[in-house]
Design goal:
- There is one protein chain.
- The protein is α+β, with helices and mostly antiparallel strands and 306 residues long.
């Protein structure tokens, strides 16, 4: 189905949903890189599921985008429709110690919501610049905490549009991975189980972690956070630093001088600049340590026609 016809069909089937024929991905990703793409903005988990199935029936498998904080998008843009979850913001206390959040809820908002209700366990997530959906998909974590520690059940769509509710161990979380990622599922909402805590103590912990982030991470430059996954038996940042790669890069992209685990956009970086810088890092680290680094950032150029 041609894009114009698809947009007309979406507009008729989902009145009131925001549709943009050419949304600049550089405005929707933390790398600030990427050309135009067709984009729709479902307003709830139910609407996302209905829209995803509607598109499947017409031969279109949509991409899903949350905060765009772990994505490198192509400069040429994408022809594939993107469903952006940022207007999906339902967040509620569903039982004592239980919070349910839609996939578009920012992790920072989720952590603050929990703190304000005297619930602890999400302090580590307050500074992660992503959404619940993206965080669950990759089991996001920081400073010793991971979402697997508190996520007790997740509703998702399988690639064929079937609704799947995974509880407990069925979510199969591991380091930066989950059953949802391995099965190509679309996160709809997640339920979290938390422990009672003192809001003042929770706030203090959040402030402590925020200070540590500001001191150690290049938060003043566009990036996608940690560029590479932690290899077995070591840390990517340490290996990159030991290889003498801080400050080195291609074009407008470089390894951060402040934190070797981050490839940053120094200004005007292209997708290829970042890819070439990542390749430089991987080749050099492999030559010097024998360890092959695996990207943590998602490279959408490789997924465009899936």
């Amino acid at each position: 189905m041609m894009q114009k016809e698809l947009f007309e069909a979406l507009s008729q089937a989902f009145p009131g949903v925001k549709l943009v024929e050419a949304e600049p991905l550089k405005h929707r990703t933390s790398f600030r890189i990427g050309g135009p793409a067709p984009m729709a903005f479902p307003r709830s988990a139910a609407e996302l599921a209905e829209m995803y199935r509607f598109l499947l029936a017409r031969g279109c498998r949509a991409l899903i985008l949350g905060a765009g904080s772990n994505v490198l998008a192509p400069d040429a843009g994408l022809s594939r429709l993107i469903l952006c979850t940022r207007e999906m913001a339902d967040l509620s206390l569903t039982a004592p110690g239980r919070i349910t959040a839609e996939c578009g809820v920012l992790l920072s908002r989720l952590a603050s919501f929990a703190r304000d209700r005297g619930l602890a366990g999400l302090e580590f997530a307050h500074g992660i610049p992503g959404t619940v959906g993206g965080g669950i998909y990759m089991n996001a974590g920081a400073y010793g905490g991971e979402l697997k520690d508190v996520a007790v059940a997740t509703e998702a769509l399988l690639p064929d549009g079937t609704l799947w509710r995974a509880e407990g161990a069925a979510q199969e979380f591991s380091y930066r991975d989950s059953a949802f990622q391995r099965r190509g599922a679309v996160i709809l909402k997640t339920e979290f189980a938390l422990e009672p805590g003192d809001p003042a103590a929770i706030t203090a912990k959040m402030q402590e972690l925020a200070q540590r982030r500001r001191a150690s991470q290049p938060l003043d430059l566009p990036s996608a956070g940690s560029t590479f996954k932690r290899p077995q038996g070591g840390y990517a940042a340490a290996l990159i630093d030991q290889a003498g790669l801080k400050g080195r890069g291609v074009g407008g992209a470089a390894v951060s001088e402040k934190h070797a685990g981050f490839v940053v956009n120094l200004g005007g970086a292209t997708e290829q600049d970042v890819l070439d810088t990542m390749d430089l890092v991987r080749r050099t680290v492999l030559e010097q340590s024998g360890i092959s680094l695996e990207p943590e950032v998602r490279l959408w150029r490789m997924e465009e026609e899936e």
